[in-house]
Each structure stands twice: as structure tokens, then as C-alpha cells.
Amino acid sequence: MPSPNSRQSWLPLVVLATGVSMVVIDATIVNVAVPAILADLRLGATDVEWINSVYSLMFAALLIPFGRMGDLHGRRRLFALGVAVFLLASVLAALSVNGPMLIAVRAVQGVGAAMAVPMTLAIINQIYTGRQRVIAFAVWGSIIGGMAAAGPLAGGWLVTEYGWRAAFWINLPIAALLLLGSLRVPESRAGHAAGADLAGLVLAVTGTTGVVFALIEGQKYGWLAPRRTADLFGLRFESVSPVPFAFGAGVVALAALVVLERRRERAGRPVLVDLTLFELPSFRYGSMAAVIVALGEFGMILVLPLFLQSALGYTAFRAGLVIAVLALGTFLAGGLVPALSKRWSPRAIVRAGLGMEAVGAAGIGLSLTPGMGPWRLVPWLLLYGAGIGFATAQLTGVLLADVPAHLSGGASALQSTIRQLGAALGVAVLGGVLVAGLGSAVERGLADRPEQVRAGVARVVEESAGAAIPSIRDPAIHAAAVEGAAEATRRVALITALALLAGVGATLLLPRTPASPDEPDEPGEPVAAAGPDTGGRDPKT
């Protein structure tokens, strides 16, 4: 491959980082575009919910199968195919004329994203070593954190100026350039397996889909008690929530997957998920930290824009401007990581980043008041974003540091699945805390009102996650609702800070690693191919 100082050697990183940017920004832009989509296509609430849910479900469910497919059949090839699928789905989404069509193509978009995203990490882990790998993972981590925060700003501008279809048309030129750029990315694979693990594929998809569906839809359908009733021929029936059944089926399928894969590994047969990865301390404890990091980061990005728009009355674009400060901190920290890595070990950088996130989240929580101005949040968002830039970038490197090259695709997909589960858990847990806190806080704020009024207002605010607050006309009730939103969001931010502190504790279990040398290490295996497949076992052990 080209020398480390040549511009050509960094071209693959530019292509891969742009691919991740396209996927991350698209997901956040669609969140902002939902109200415009609802009005234009005249969709119901269920349709709108599935526009986002079906994408997340397909993405999470297919990461592991596609990760293994990339190892076997070519990582660059699968990345390019994923970009092409994403491009086609974006065109169809922009041309959608009704809800079912848009939901179907969003599912296809999820398939394309599941092909492309894990391949970016696998290829980076394969072609960069030493200082180059530190820089590459810093860029990748900053992209993930920064674009998730900058997306709402870009989405607010695009939807305001050009309509919701622009959220999908914007992917066309980017994807076309990515397909051209992918020709300059080195190909790598692990060889061909002796057979397919079809049973593992079914269990992995079923298990991941069931768990992620339950986490995403738990608030809507309820975890224990049924949430809805129906009248039929004068008789009243209670609908049964699908969430506990989906979650139970998912857990059983994942447990069966573990048993199956261990049996296949002992028999020397090809496996879909190489469970020996968890025997590596860096991967095992890094995965624990990744779940906590994703829980905290995605939970905060969910609740803070809701508070700014519903309680403080900001437009989507103005709220995006505030959240963009977080992205600025992420990008600035990502630029500092390579220099910092000369003095600090990756574990120390991860720990410092998580500590900064925890302090930033606590500061955000303690700053939230009904009449606050946006500048009060700026220093805490900057600190929180810088923590993401440090933690996310280096945690990825720590996780994959000891993974054999021939397992890069599967390991990258597995860690992406773990992060996706952590993000879904964050949305479920912190979203649940927010909704429950909204109802109770609003009721306390209306203690002098009749019980029927208290319960009615609390129910409306709770069921809308605060979105109904701007429509409340009574000044006293509106003030109580805003105060309740501030209290509930403050609670979520402080719980996020505690979760991130737990993540700091998880980093104590990570193996000690030295600071990166100034010169790149010699690659341990060829870049283009990594020898024959060994059924998931590291030949060096």
C-alpha cells in the first residue's frame, strides 16, 4: 500500500468516513422531516412511527450476517453494494406517494446501511496500523458523534428550504461519489467457508429483531399491561401487547444462537458469530463500555431537542443550532486525539472522554430551567461533545485492537450491533424516564387544579412526550407543563451522567495498552487477503 505520508493512503479513509456520514446524517434528517412527511402524505401516527422503526430494525438485524459476508466475499465489494442499495432506496423514498411505499423503501435503506457501515470499520482495521490507525479511528468516531448532532441542523435547513423529499435527494450525489471512490479502496477478504451457517443466520436475525423491536416499541405498546382496548359487537376487549412476546422470543433466539455457534465451533464447522471474540479482554470489556456509551449518548440526543422545541418553543432549525455545539466539540476532540495518543494510552483517552461526557451531561441537567437562554447550555454541550470525540474514537480502536484480521468484518458488525442495542436501550430507558417524569411532574405543578384537569393535562403531555405543550392556551397550565418538562429532562440528563460514570468504571477492566508510537507498526497480515478461513478460530492461538 502507499507510504503513510502520501495523500493516496488516506483516500480510503475519506471514502469510508463519507459513507458513514451519509448514513448517520440521513437517519437524523428523516427525524426532523417527519412532521412535513406526515402533512404531505397524510399519514397516520402508526405510519410515521414505522418510517423510523423499520429502518432501525433492518439495520440492527442484518449487521451480523453482512459482517460475516464481507469477511468471506470481499469487504470493499459489500461496502459498494450497500452504497448502491442505499442510493436506490433514497431515490424511491424521494418519489414515494404514500405511507406504505415510504415504509418499504426505508426498510431497503436499512439493508443498505447494514451492508456498508460495518465494512467501514473492518476495512479501516485492516489497512491502517500504528499511528495511522489511531488517526483513522479518531476520524471515524468523530464522524459518528458529530454527524448525529449536526444532522438535525442540516435537516432543519433542507426541509425548511426545499421540502422533505430533499432529505433523500441529497444522498444521490454523495452516493455516486462514494461508488467512484470505492474503486480506490483496497479489497480484503478471509477466504471462502466450507459451508453456510443458515441456522445461525435465522437465529441472529430473529433474536436481534425481537430485542430491538421490544426496546423501540415498548413505550408505545407497553411492557406488561395492555395499552389499548377495542369494541366488537358491543363487547370490550383489551389488546395484548406484542412487546413481551417479541422480547422473549428475541432473548430465546439469541441464547439458542450462542449454543449453536459453540457447537459448530467445537465441530470445526463455519460459524456466523465467532464467540471466541469475547475471550479477548479488549473486545469483551470494550463491548460493555460501548453499550453504556451508546445508551448515554443517544438518550441525550433524543430528549434535549424535545425539550428545546416543546418547552422553550424553539423551531427545529434553532434547536439544531444549539445541538450543533455538541458536534463542534466532537470534531475538535477528534482532531486532538492523534496528538494526545502519543502521551496517553487508548484506555486513558476513553476514560477521560467518558468523564467529560458525564460532567457535561450533569451540567446540562443542572442548567435546565423554563426561562433559560440557549447560551447557558453551550459550555456543557461543548464539553459533552468533546467527550464523545475522545471516547467513541478510541473505544472503537480498543475494541478491535486484538481482533485477527480475518475476523475484522464479523467483529466490526458485532460491535456495531452492540452499539445499536445500546442506543435502542438508551431510547427505551431514558425515553421511558422522560415520559413517566413528564406526567408526574405536570400533576404536581397543577396541585391546585381539580383532579380531572390534572390527570387530563398530564396524560396529554405524557403521551405526546411534551410535543403538545405549545398548544396549551391556559397560561398557568402552560407554565406548569413547561416546568414539568424541565424537571423530567433534568432527571434524564442526571441519569445519563450516572450511566456514563458506570462506563468509566467499565474502562477499568480494559487491558493496559501503551501510547501509540510515532512510527506505524508493521502489519501482521497482508492487506489484500488473510489466508484461509479457520472456522472462526485465530490461527495464532
Automatic annotation (TrEMBL):
Name used for this protein in its record: MFS transporter
Protein location: Cell membrane
Domain Major facilitator superfamily (MFS) profile, chain residue ranges per copy: 12-514
Tree of life domain: Bacteria
One Gene Ontology MF term: transmembrane transporter activity
UniProt entry keywords in alphabetical sequence: Membrane, Transmembrane, Transmembrane helix, Transport
Region Disordered, residue ranges: 511-541
GO cellular component, as recorded: plasma membrane
TM stretches of this protein: 12-38, 50-66, 78-97, 103-124, 136-160, 166-186, 198-216, 243-260, 285-308, 314-337, 380-401, 421-442, 492-510
Topology relative to the membrane: Multi-pass membrane protein
PANTHER family: MAJOR FACILITATOR SUPERFAMILY MULTIDRUG TRANSPORTER MFSC
